[in-house]
Amino acid sequence: MKLGNHPVADSIRDLGLSAQPIMSIYYPERAAILPSGTVIEKGVRPMEGYLGKNRKADHIVEYPA
User: Fold this and answer.
1) 11 pLDDT tier (thresholds 50, 70, 90)
2) Residue 2 DSSP class
3) Quick count: other Cβ atoms within 10 Å of Cβ 30?
4) Which backbone phi and psi does 30 adopt, to 5 degrees?
5) What is the 3-state secondary structure (H, E, C) of 9-62?
6) Distance of alpha carbon 58 from alpha carbon 61, whole angstroms
7) Is 44 in contact with 38 (CB distance < 8 Å)?
8) N or C: which end of the chain has fewer CB within 10 A?
């Protein structure tokens, strides 16, 4: 793992974690049969979700100086 030069990276680095993992899991797929949903709040528009299209968007992360 590469840690950058910012306060969060410093706090993770200060934990003194080993570079050698004690366990790893590969979980490529999780399938389930779920019951139909229940409306718990009215007036909420549905989430768009993945429509199978490429969409343009900007993802900006800013760290305080």
Assistant:
1) very high
2) -
3) 5
4) -135, 110
5) HHHHHHCCCCCCCCCCCCCCCCCCCCCCCCCCCCCCCCCCCCCCCCCCCCCCCC
6) 10
7) no
8) C
Q: Read off the pTM.
A: 0.32
Distances (CA, A) of 28 to 25, 31, 58: 9, 10, 27
Q: Quick: pLDDT tens for 13-54.
A: 999 988 788 888 887 777 788 888 887 888 877 776 666 677
Instruction: List own/partner pairs for 51-60 with CB under 8 A and 24 or more apart.
Output: none
* CA pair distance 34, 12, nearest whole angstrom: 37
State how far the Cα of 22 lies from the Cα of 32, in Å rounded to an integer: 29
